[in-house]
């Protein structure tokens, strides 16, 4: 996993807990509220590694790191705070009710993380037993009290340095390796500027409030548009500054035309205009400064550069870094599906499957003929093993059948009193019953009232709750199971194939949606590198959070495609070729085909979301797979492919630069504390195993009797 980031554009929150003295000292909130905070951006999966003594109990705890802006009528100006809050104080709740069609993840609300979930997410279990969340332990510091930011260990660690004394205020380890993205967010909002690159990493100076305003002023001058205009230079700058200095009497602003081929922040070679040798610009203080053009400088002019000139040069440098010299895309063609005759050629006399890599390559290229899917899917989803003989497969299926019915017996034998006293089970059962009634009812396999296949669908989902109770059931899982059950028909086979599929996508259903956020960040990075024009457009329209792809990634395009196309796409993705994250490149390919429409139509975020939803039923899967593979090959062939992209597409990482610490080399490696994590399930003795097996077999027999008699 690479990164997990959320951009909350000025989301308003009431942390209302600050006094003047405590706001400066970063102390715990007082009883009376004073300010309202706007979250500018926040990142999840951030471990607190170093802090003051009062936060020692939270060291090595995962949380969220945010930059929050506080405003109040009682304060003379805004105040920016860096805030970190541990995840273990956050309740699991449905926060997607306002997302309309996105609201597929609907976890059981009001529960704390289980012990096993705490182990998985490296957090500490709640010490309260009544289900009431502990009061949030927020670490907060005024940004003006910090002097610098250090990014270390190849974008995994951030250090904040105090102004007073120059010591370390705090250090954070980003579990998804996205510390550089947090810094980029601060830089984009003009809170920091690059200072120097040291052997240990990069250092950024935190700007004072006055310098922040100055940087923001230059950013708002639309210099990218100015550079691509055809106006003489002496005419545009005074007008752009006029908006900041007030009205200028007897002045009419000339029309401004943007080059249709230019993107914000890009200067096209055809748009260059020769400015006069000498020109006047109005300074921010109201004075008039004289400057010389490049022609006068070539004649030996030594006039100092104005702030506007410096800003123009900085923007030019930033633009050059954005442009990626990617090689041309290769032409890719799809192949024919795997046939019965080909499949038999790979079978040995004792039933083993040879050359599984070649089989996966054929499946990736062309899919599988319909009649062969039932058997082949068992291998792709790790239910059957390629190297097993026929006899070994039969024995494996017998044991897996016994295990399935053991788990099924557990929920079938649940009494009314048990269910009444088991809130988590009861709520999961209720959600499953609701979702099963509306899953793929338009398909013949699930159509009609009293359809026995609906009972199979519900039974498998209920058994999965017993198999993985920490995850349980989340809305959207029924969408993933339905096509598998349609092909497998047998409930045992469908269950274990579903388990294999869930092993690939279980992070989609994280209680804090960290897995989805990580995929959004990876998708954002892929588009930034592979489709710079679209990325720059979306970023300039606050649409680069990729949230409009939520439904695509959550259920692997199930709701965008016809049933047959879903089967073709899934079996292609299950091969994990050409890289494990190929499902993200499929999203990149969809957006690649819609780039012209989105940009030329000047879509904002809402229009992009609407347009994406309207693509349902209109995505050409073979063509999109070809484009996705072509993009993969294009990225792979790039000589300037950075390590974060290499990590996403599964390419070997580049060796560290000379003098730079190797990746993963930390001063203090993140550790999983044993505090509060005793062995979850102690190993039973042989006698206990035998007794337990006898009880389970009896339960299995009884469950079968109750089910079929």
Automatic annotation (TrEMBL):
<dbReference type="InterPro" id="IPR000195">
    <property type="entry name" value="Rab-GAP-TBC_dom"/>
</dbReference>
<feature type="domain" description="Rab-GAP TBC">
    <location>
        <begin position="367"/>
        <end position="577"/>
    </location>
</feature>
<dbReference type="GO" id="GO:0005737">
    <property type="term" value="C:cytoplasm"/>
</dbReference>
<feature type="compositionally biased region" description="Acidic residues">
    <location>
        <begin position="660"/>
        <end position="681"/>
    </location>
</feature>
<feature type="region of interest" description="Disordered">
    <location>
        <begin position="252"/>
        <end position="326"/>
    </location>
</feature>
<dbReference type="GO" id="GO:0005096">
    <property type="term" value="F:GTPase activator activity"/>
</dbReference>
<comment type="subunit">
    <text>Interacts with non-phosphorylated form of RAB8A; phosphorylation of RAB8A at 'Thr-72' disrupts this interaction. Interacts with ARMC12.</text>
</comment>
<comment type="function">
    <text>Acts as a GTPase activating protein for RAB7A. Does not act on RAB4, RAB5 or RAB6.</text>
</comment>
<keyword id="KW-0343">GTPase activation</keyword>
<keyword id="KW-0597">Phosphoprotein</keyword>
<keyword id="KW-0963">Cytoplasm</keyword>
<dbReference type="Pfam" id="PF00566">
    <property type="entry name" value="RabGAP-TBC"/>
</dbReference>
<feature type="region of interest" description="Disordered">
    <location>
        <begin position="658"/>
        <end position="694"/>
    </location>
</feature>
<feature type="compositionally biased region" description="Low complexity">
    <location>
        <begin position="283"/>
        <end position="301"/>
    </location>
</feature>
<dbReference type="InterPro" id="IPR035969">
    <property type="entry name" value="Rab-GAP_TBC_sf"/>
</dbReference>
<protein>
    <recommendedName>
        <fullName>TBC1 domain family member 15</fullName>
    </recommendedName>
</protein>
<keyword id="KW-0007">Acetylation</keyword>
